[in-house]
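Task card 7
Instruction: Convert sequence to structure tokens.
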Amino acid sequence: MKLNYDMNLEIISEKIIMKIVLFSFLVAGNVALFAGPDNIALQAKASASAEWNDNFAAAKINDGLIGISEIGEWASDSKENFWGGINYPWIQLDWDENQFIDKIIFYDRVSLKSHLAGGTLLFSVGPNGQGQIPEIGAQFLRDAGTWIQKYPQVVYAAGASPWGHAMPWGDVTTKGKSMFLSVFDWPQDGKLYLPGLKNEILSAHLLKGAKAEKISFEQKQGWTIFNVPFQPGDTPASVIELTFDSAPSTEDVESGQLRLCPLRV
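Output:
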């Protein structure tokens, strides 16, 4: 199994669907953090197409260290070949036993200059001894395909998060004048927090397939706080679309500083 492009964490199993729950607390800047205690990536053996040098070895991909530049990061030495093509790199994780997953979190390299432009995530959900794909693997693929069919704008031709890293509740992508919040961990208190957004939001909607539910929000102490329903909009991730008068970019967010959530009253 192969995964293209440099990343800071990638989960590929040579067996069937894995199980991983990564609880991470993300802050921007040079703050070294560790992925959560339920991170089974730590138990895997990493191999890669190439390594930039010993400081960016394949084993760095799943050492659990995140959030600090050039430490705990894998990088390849992929170069343009003599006919102008590029040998795109891949990274692979293997476990000794079958694993089951319900969440995968990727961490890109900290430096914005080294961020990936895209990639392909491959699972080994091959057939069993009878030539059949296990139902748990088949259902996983059906669910993922159904979700992507409902929200293609979140995935296809979408741009990376202006923050350059995931959020504790999920991740962000952009397309045109929209920003999409893919929320895997739905807040139980009806409040979703987005740090450091500087530009004005024209509208915010919770998407439910072809339908959209308007949600209110406020900006306070450097945070945008969304008032969301107590029930998530969809599974495995709910999607909130934000619209702006121009395409969002890295200049529209404040990163590189630790922010404390405003008091809830």
